[in-house]
Amino acid sequence: MIVAELSRVIVPNPWFCRKVEEMSGDKVSVCFQCAKCTNGCPVTFAMDIAPHRLMHSIQLGLRDEVLHSDTIWVCASCETCNTRCPNDIDVAHIMDTLRQISQGEGIRASQSNVPIFHSVFLSSVRKHGRVSEMEMALIYYLKSQGLTGLLKQAGMGSRMFIRGKIKLIPTPVRGMSQVRTLFRKAEEKR
Amino acid sequence: MNVSYYPGCSLSGTARECGESVEAVSRRLGVELQELTNWSCCGSSSAHVTNDMLAVALAARNLEIADRVGMDLMVPCAACYHRLKLAEKELLAGKQIEGISGMYKGNFRIKHIADFLWEDVGEGTLKKKVKKHLGGLNLVCYYGCLTTRPPKVTDAKRPEDPQAMDYLMKSLGANVKSWSYKTACCGGNLILTRPDIAIKLIQNILDMALEAEADCIVTGCPMCYSNLDRTQKEISKETGKKYDIPIFYLTELLGVSLGEPSAKRWLRRHLTDPTLLLRHMGITQ
Does B78 touch chain A (CB under 8 A)? Predict the structure, then answer.
């Protein structure tokens, strides 16, 4: 008797797909696995789940696999996938939605540097209205890689400083109360 | 000609030479740039990853300012262009954003600098002002991701094979090579978070430019410019293959061709020295 060997039995769960579709406004369920997204994606070599398989995983409701994947954090948001999708699925935007769900549920990102970078970047914008690249880079390296990580950047930092590419004092922006309101309101809506 | 101008954050920092050359070239071409008063960050790549509403709101704040001015808005950064275009679509569709007035008229166009120079300033004006032909300079035009993708946001006519920079460079006399990496991705901010990935993407672009027999790369994105310019030494060290390909932001090469004396200052800011190539080709002294 031949017994089929299944590594795991998958019970499809429509709830996760529905949640992703509601939040993103994109129709993941129309994906028919043509893999055009994957074929055009420049970073598949660093992904654990290829983009078209990620769409399938969402359809099946494999929430944990999707939200713990490297894929959602290494996606470069180059938007090749949504430019080419024959079903007009905004795959890059779905990556954003998955990142937001994952952060909202307090899941530790498989690529922890990525959410640290974005949060440090936005803090700088919230404070100054524009990003202070120097402040952002300093805090990012310190938070993600510690003092040793920061010191490793000293060479590049000094080469850029000599060439006048590091702006020390951010230009003040008037109307900061509006910028802060936009942050606050967006966070409430989340 | 007067236009509103949204420089974006990097143009006074890591991509300072891009900003300096945009301003100098505009002056030479008789374009008066009116920087949006108290513009703020467009949200860049961090806002859309974090919060959809914030991503639209931060960009929309700047469109609200531009709307009051009512002139076309010229944008030299690919990422800013993309975020502003996306917010424009949302506002025109009637999206209400708390903290942004609901009075958006939107009777102005948002234009990336390459399209602005080619379509609005035009070949005629350029050719009249050119002092130095880029005779025989072999180059490839590198557009990156966000000036063209996705076309429903950017309104790009040829998202997989854009042309504006090619036309511009040809009109300056450059020998524009054909290649298939025009809209490839340089990794963007992965250079900070996963440099190993970004370095690989950048190396592919440099290799393809060499294969196309280009002596330099011209780009319209400050992030691509910075990524390609500053990593070559590191890539050479890691791979053992020597990379030394000058990267130009498009208005830098345009400025050189217009005989702009301040060009020397910008060119000194590059981490991969472009001056040898320009001297070797007899374009600068």
Answer: no
Domain ranges of chain A: 14-104, 113-189
For chain B, say whether A102 makes contact (Cβ under 8 Å): no
Measured between its terminal Cα atoms, the distance across chain A in Å is 54
Spell out the domains of chain B, with CATH numbers in brackets.
2-112 (1.20.1050.140), 130-280 (3.40.50.11810)
Token pair in block for residue A117: 């970078």
Write down the CATH number for the domain with range A14-104: 1.10.1060.10
Within 13 A of B259's CA, how many CA atoms are on the CB side? 8
In whole angstroms, give the CA distance from residue B131 to residue B279.
Answer: 16
Nearby residues of B112 by Cβ (< 8 Å), 6 or more positions away: B75, B76, B78, B81, B147, B164, B220
pLDDT in tens, B183-211: 999 999 999 999 999 999 999 999 999 99
State whether B57 and A83 contact (CB < 8 Å): no
Indicate whether this complex's ipTM tops 0.90. Answer: yes
Closest chain B CA to residue A104: B50
Chain B CB contacts of A174 below 8 Å: 37-38
Residue in chain B nearest A150 by alpha carbon: B192
Q: Which two tokens stand for residue B183?
A: 């809209």
Tokens (6 digits) for B133? 């032909």
